[in-house]
Amino acid sequence: MTATGTYTPRPGAAPLPRMIAAQTALETRMLLRNGEQLLLTVVIPTLLLVLFSTVDVVDTGPGEAVDFLTPGVLALAVMSTAFTGQAIATGFERRYGVLKRLASSPLPRWGLMTAKTASVLVTEVLQVILLTVVAYALGWSPHGDPLSVLLLLVLGTAAFSGLGLLMAGTLKAEATLAAANLVFLLLLVGGGVIVPLDKFPQGAQDVLGLLPVSALSDGLRDVLQHGAGTPWGDLGILAVWAVAGLAAAAAFFRWE
């Protein structure tokens, strides 16, 4: 005989960490199922690394081309996921009313942003593992302190995430799609990822060196290629971009 009250509903929100973890898993699955996002975040960086490491297209200076290219491609992977991919996905979620509906759920808005950021980090871990394996197969010989590399990647992720959310929360979805892809292409060419910054005029170098992708790629290159210590200058540039981008996104982001 069933005791009274055994099947009495107990409505209520799940614990916050569980909600964030569930949303993170959902965001990650959606990202990994999206063919266009995978092309942008995984396929293109991998192809660029293989192509420019094996074909003498760009003069990367003394040493093996893969030693110069790998740090830049790692920076490109962070930018493609934290900025371009996140901006486009979030922009269309906002257009279709997904964010508006999620904002009315027990998951707080900051929890949703936390889940999106965690999903980006999970994707970046997979990217870094894949690109590292490919780079080693091409003869990469990294140096330097892993902690410095981690600091650069985390600050780079924060900087690009803030800028991506700012774009997605202020522009229309179609404008976000066009602008995010345009910025991706421009920074791919002028951000020190494939083409060394010293190939540009001095005045342009001074400006391009302040871009987040330039600071990230140069910092990673100083550590991984040259075995330098902690690149405080590049970390400072990334920190400024991270604070400014996240603050602007928090202030101007529109949920509908």
TrEMBL record:
Q: Name its cellular compartments.
A: Membrane
Annotated GO biological processes are: response to antibiotic
GO MF, one example: ABC-type transporter activity
Extract one GO cellular component term from the record.
Answer: ATP-binding cassette (ABC) transporter complex
Write down the superkingdom of origin: Bacteria
Q: Which Pfam families match?
A: ABC2_membrane_3
Q: Give the record's membrane topology.
A: Multi-pass membrane protein
Where the record annotates domain ABC transmembrane type-2, the positions are 32-256
Name the keywords, alphabetized.
Antibiotic resistance, Membrane, Transmembrane, Transmembrane helix
Q: What name does the UniProt record give this protein?
A: ABC transporter permease
